[in-house]
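If I may wish for something, please sit down with the protein I am sending here and say whether tokens and residues agree:
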Amino acid sequence: QVQLVESGGGLVQPGDSLRLSCAASGRTFSTYSIGWFRQAPEKDREFLAAISGDGDSTAITGSVKGRFAISRNNAKNTVYLQMNSLKPEDTAVYYCAADKSGLIRGSSYNLDSYDDWGQGTQVTVSS
């Protein structure tokens, strides 16, 4: 089990950038793959991106491809989601989640593949 805490959300204008952080506990952080999801009001939780435990493999969904990027620093037990060119439709609660397999696989797009979740951080994009 790993505990995750998201941070970095806030209120920004369209076109702005944010970098979200997912800070994790535990000595075995590098053995977990990490995914980012978001959930807008009255919408299903949506997969955004995932990164393997060693950081060598990533996946990103087409709805944010070209604007968002995922990275990790295992020495700091932290995974990042860089979000550029933000749009009002990006407004949501953003969550990170840990997958004990450590891999990027087809099921990485499925929230049921993840073992532990953070509590989320709010991102609001509005003019």
Q: What stands out?
A: The CA atoms of residues 35 and 50 lie 4 Å apart. The mean pLDDT is 96.
